[in-house]
Amino acid sequence: MRLPFQKSGGNGPAEPLLPRVQALVSRHEVESERLIGWAQLGVVLFFGVLWAVAPRPADATLFQPVPIALGFYLVFTTIRLVLSHVTVLPGWMLFVSIVVDVGMLLGLIWSFHIQYGQPAAFYLKIPTFTYIFVFIALRALRFDARFVLATGILAAVGWFGMVLYAVQATGPGGITRSFVEYLNSSRILIGAEIDKIVAILVVTAILAIAIRRASQVLARSIREEVRTRDMIRFLPRDVADVITSAADMVKPGDGEEREAAVLFLDLRGFTRFCAGKPPREVVDLLVSFHKRIVPIITGYSGVVDKYLGDGVMATFGAAYASPTAAADAVQALEAIMREAGEWRGSLGQSAEATTPLVNGAVTAGPVIFAALGDEERLEYTIIGEAVNLATKIEKHNKAEASVALTTLAAYERAVEQGYRREGEPEILRSRAVAGVGEPIDLVVLAR
Known about the structure:
By secondary structure, the protein is an alpha+beta fold. The chain folds into two domains: 214 residues, no CATH class; 194 residues, Alpha-Beta Plaits, CATH 3.30.70.1230. The protein is 56% helix and 15% strand. Strands 1, 2, 3, 4, 5, 6, 7 and 8 form an eight-stranded mixed sheet that branches. α2 runs antiparallel to α3. The radius of gyration is 37 Å and the shape is rod-shaped.
């Protein structure tokens, strides 16, 4: 069945909804149908309590169809509500529910002239008529104008039938053109009944138009929600939060300077490993590696900034300021080195011998967390000496026969922030790192 809010006709071909979008829309519709069921149950319980506590009119006869009708409607509504929580209600059942709603209400109104021993025209003045609009409005809880139209048209046709019945039962003498006489007698004013039918149809039309417009907005919103949700998967969560919570639209160059830490990882020997390997095997290796290390990074409040083929760059305290950025980064790198050993071991003895070694480095210092690009495409990244230094120190692992290094300055900052290491750190004094102008003090985190 075509969803009611898919565009069709007039302005060109319908824009098809992707299956995952349709699934989300269908879930909204199911929730709406359940809400309607609960609202109907509330209505029937309200009527039941009202009838039970209200004193019986002294001029009413022994014929009392209200409890019978309410009892039947309670059973029907309960069954319908239970089914809506068990399965998706078919369209025909929804239309049957509309017939039951309108039929029960009009049937009760029709019975009033029997209850009070009056001419048929008597029921045309019963204020219970206004509850017709309640049942029409209930269908507006679902984003499908067809059900509102069906309820309103059925109610208008039903009331027209009741007017015809009253006219036939009272005869030509029961019709009047006097509004005063209409109010003070059991005579029928045709114009007044036409007004009621017109009111039903106008309210129905307005609600249907409003629902149609709302359903189009809903379709666009859901489509954008799915697109946004899919796109966010390609962004670090903290970065996505910065973008979506910004007071103004992010522009190229927007950024903030912060004290942050940078963690850089690389697979040493990856190019040699890839030689002669099928692309799928290489991809599977990277996926298995990322699956193990990314939870560690995020577990220490880090954000994966970039996947660089066989490398990973993560930041701590860049998207949001953190008083423990350096300590978190150092602890994350140590945990990753432990996990890397288990990862290589899980690949099997033969694969472990050829699997690239995981190298890492941590630096800390002032960086700018900024949006770069143009108005059409932006990317949040960090810029600063700490970023450049992290990549160079990571490569320096090979010269020191180590797998994880950090600068002495970053290490001391981590200690100030609460980091503690078992035993004395291995400090490498005045190391000449390729690409760095002056010798730098380093600390070995793992060999």
